[in-house]
Amino acid sequence: MSEIKLVFEEPKQRKKAPQHLADLTPEERRAKAIELGLPAFRANQIATHYFTHFSDDPETWTDIPATMRPLVAEHFMPKLITLVKSVDCDNGKTRKDLWKLHDGVMVESVIMRYKDRTTVCISSQAGCGMNCPFCATGQAGLTRNLTAGEITAQIVAAAKACNDGEIGEDPTRLSNVVFMGMGEPLANYNPVIRTVRNIISPNPDGLGIGARSVTVSTVGLVPGIEKLMKEDIQVTLAISLHTPDDELRDTLVPINSRWKVKEVLMAADAYSDNTGRRYSVEYAMIRDINDQAWRADLLGRLLKNRDAHVNLIPLNPTPGSKWTASRKKDEMEFVKILEDYGVTVTVRDTRGREIDGACGQLAAAEKV
Ligand code: SF4
Q1: Is 0.70 surpassed by the pTM of this model?
Q2: What integer pLDDT is reported at residue 13 of this predicted model?
Q3: What torsion, rounded to 10 degrees, do the Cα atoms 136, 140, 145, 147 define?
């Protein structure tokens, strides 16, 4: 049990990130404006600049009196993330950004433009305490939780990049957000939920992206899934299962020693029943570790009557790791077995593979 307790301990106290508009609810934003001696409507103006026009520089906001702008900048728009490096591939349609936070901690986000949507994959923690052995982020441990301001800033930056025509050949709209970068989102619950509300609230309070276009992934923190269910927001839940049997999962996803496969799936079923949303099961295909036909069979039996969709993700190996992606023939057999059970399956494309697309790899490389 001691290991599990550790996972939920707040990492070492660091200087807190300054409070940002995105850390506050719309009511708190207005209350803060009044506290600063500004009329409440200024909070809406600030939110419009940030969430609708993706601007974070009050000096350029001509509808705010020039004398007021320094106060607004200090109390609502402190600079939370600074771009260190961007790497792109797929003709500019995939871009990974490495960000430095106020205390020097690095996190990353990835923007992926597809035919029908543009998605940003964001980090909710710096590092991760879940310790999955095949994951670069997991190897470094948890540095700290991100604030809602820091998570939201990655999304607003992505929305701006899309709007400015930096992703692909022409401007586009950021349409989807997935919490699948560094960190376990449900281990940083309140900032993640504040961020989700920033994403789905209509302008001016938020970005106005539909809840159904937001995916929150988890390794299976059952109390977190239950709490999320009660929020009454229809975000898609993704369960990072990676194997259907507890014996291997205890090793691949160590938190499994606390919440077993069946408990996690039951919590996901309840989430699906309550929200009417099909959930997804994420499965990193690791050669000769979890990609055997008998495991596909076990997974098929587990999922055949559930409202779940399987995403198989060819493992993007971390440098120096003994783990690697499955052989194509094993992957194809795995898909076929699942489909024979009537389970819907997608093999995720390996966007960003050549730019160290797996979570944590760019940040890890930068530290070397
Ligand atoms: S796979 Fe996800 S949950 Fe596991 S260590 Fe990596 S970031 Fe954390």
Answers
A1: yes
A2: 55
A3: -60
